[in-house]
Amino acid sequence: MTFQYDGLGRMRISTNWDGSTTEYVYDGMRVIQERDGNNTPQVSYTRGTDLSGTMEGAGGIGGLLARSAGYSSGNWTSNSYYHADGNGNIMYLEDSNQGLAASYRYDAFGETLQWNGPLAFANTYQFSSKQRMQIDPQGVFAFEDIYYYGYRFYAPHLQRWLNQDPIGEEGGLNLYTYVGNTPLDEIDPDGLQISPTKPPMPGIPKWGPEADRALKNIYKACACNESPDLSDCLTFCQAVYGSAGDLNVTKCTGDCDDCFVKGMDKPEPPKKKPKSKNPPHGTNAPPPTIPPKTNPAPSAPKLK
């Protein structure tokens, strides 16, 4: 297969081994329609909010609602509906009669273990709600295909990316590792950054600028101001900067150590001395004694 991309890096045209082409129409970074080489619509996708609670904060993972096919005179003759698990993996596709259209079972890294239903192969959005690209048109290895994430291709049977990390070793020594080898706890929205499948702390959103700001503020207060337990500092650090094993976490660990030591070395503020009721008036002088007030004795009456 060959692929063509637009100026934003989105795959716009894929050419199959037999010369047939598929053109993709996008809303942001999410495919909403596929067309053939004659610009005729083939499949349309209805999308809602993804795992982030926004339209594409999690790269559309978990946001697929419906698949429409059979385009004719401006109408779609076939509609089916997506059901995903907590990590956004498509598990079931339901037809308009509430019958089985497709079902899938995966291992932890997304390799398809079982599939069933008339649309099991025609539906290309499966693991992590991402598009499966057919690299085995002869069907020799069935579902041993790759997934397109927007900026990289992922091979579940290899449990790794096929493209190296675009930022090189700044993202970790292993340029091809997938979500830090923790696919049950983390996802990658578009092949660029790992995100947790659940908030790292109660009350903090999973993704986005608000989550980053909240976690960084907690980490800053944790590491250098409040001098907490070092393990708490590392927990916040990993939540902010990525999964264990990345260079960012290694650097952050050093920052935590430094901040923790600095926090332990901070001199304690001087304790305020209690105020004395009778403050001293000299180095060794005792407080002055004030005699009690007395009433003067009455004077004798004068004789005339």
Please provide a written account of the structure:
The protein folds into two domains: 2-171, no CATH class; 199-265, no CATH class. It is 16% helix and 27% strand. The protein contains three helices and 16 strands. It has helices at residues 209-225, 230-241, 247-265; strands at 2-5, 11-15, 21-27, 30-35, 41-47, 64-72, 75-84, 90-95, 100-106, 112-116, 131-133, 146-148, 153-155, 160-161, 186-187, 195-196. It has a ten-stranded antiparallel sheet with strand order 1-2-3-4-5-6-7-8-9-10, with no helix packed on it. Strands 11-12-13-14 form a four-stranded antiparallel sheet, with no helix packed on it. A two-stranded antiparallel sheet has the order 15-16. Strand 7 and strand 8 form a beta hairpin. Helix 1 runs antiparallel to helix 2 (230-241) and helix 2 (230-241) packs antiparallel against helix 3. The termini are far apart. Mean pLDDT is 78; it is low at 243-251 and 260-268.
Please report the number of helical segments. 3
Characterize the main sheet.
Answer: 10 strands, antiparallel
Cα-to-Cα separation, first versus last residue: 141 Å
The class by helix and strand makeup works out as: alpha+beta
Unreliable parts: 243-251, 260-268
As an assembly, this protein is single chain
Shape estimate: elongated
- The number of domains is 2
Computed over alpha carbons, the radius of gyration is: 34 Å
Number of strands: 16
Biggest sheet strand order reads: 1-2-3-4-5-6-7-8-9-10
Helical residues, percent: 10-25%
Range of strand content: 25-35%
Give average pLDDT, whole number: 78
Helix/strand order, N-terminal first? EEEEEEEEEEEEEEEEHHH
